Amino acid sequence: MAFLRREFSDHVLTLTMSSPDTRNALTGAEQFDDFVQTCAEINDDMSIRAVVLTGEGSAFCAGGNVKDMRDRAGMFSGDPFDQASAYRMGIQRIPRAIQSLNVPIIAAVNGPAVGAGCDLATMCDIRVASTKAMFAESFVQLGLIPGDGGAWFLPRAVGFSNASLMALTGDPVKADEALRIGLVSKVVEAEELVATAQAIAARIAGNPPHAVRLTKQLLRGSERNSLDEMLDKSAAFQAICHAEPDHHEAIAAFFDKRPGAYRKD
To answer: Environment class of residue 243 by beta-carbon count within 10 Å: exposed (0-12), middle (13-18) or buried (19+)?
Structure first.
């Protein structure tokens, strides 16, 4: 059975991590492969315009398997060279796959997001939390560092000072504090969480698809490009947008005061 359960409706793909007995921990090659393959398939499917990621059960994602760490089993076995290779060829494939997505991905954080689970949430473009959510960049408390990209993603989500506070103490951050520091955009009751995330995804999916994808590219590019590089890229992207049939349809819909009817593929 696949780790990521899929539900597709009205151009929105909802992915549910479906291993509640392990609190959706990320420990096995099958899970890593599922993320990589799913992200590749999303990029190849133009009918998918937005993605929601959530967890089944009480947790969003419990991170790595601490029992395997204790037993030095699975990806935690072998000498330091073996373990470094296991990270590169294993869990680090997830941030690369999610970062490569052409469409926006929204994390619907239903419960604890701990360690790699916290980092997984920060890999997403938008985060919505249940009142039952909790975030913990807790690696340091186990004598570890964020090995899956958290040291890159977390400061970009909450700023250097807040990221340092989370990563150097390992202390948990509850949903209301996560909202205050900008780790999440909304906090809603548990029963409203997935519907809220899907509504945001539907709002995104209702816009011209080419503009959404190019806007995401620009936003991601701003993390590493200079202003001059961003302005040059923006000029090129805007010229492409002006030539797109969906741009002309959006203009017509604006004047007609109606929803746009954009390409179906």
So the answer is: exposed
- Residues 11-33 have pLDDT tens digits of 999 999 999 999 999 988 999 99
CA distance 84 to 91: 11
Q: Check: CB of residue 130 under 8 Å from CB of residue 175.
A: yes
Look at residues 69, 6, 62 and name the one whose alpha carbon lies nearest to residue 35.
6
> From the CA atom positions of the chain, what is the Rg in Å?
19
Q: Is 80 exposed, middle or buried (0-12, 13-18, 19+ CB in 10 A)?
A: exposed
Backbone angles phi, psi at 127, to 5 degrees: -125, 130
Name the residue with tokens 């969480």. 193
Chain centroid to Cα 114, Å, comes to 15
* Residue entry with tokens 């009142």: 131
pLDDT tens for 104-148 read 999 999 999 999 999 999 999 999 999 999 999 999 999 999 989
Task: Give the whole-angstrom CA distance, residue 48 versus residue 8.
Answer: 8
Tokens of residue 232, six digits: 């040059």
H-helix or E-strand spanning residue 38: helix 29-44
65's tokens: 């398997």
Give Cα 190 to chain centroid, integer Å.
19
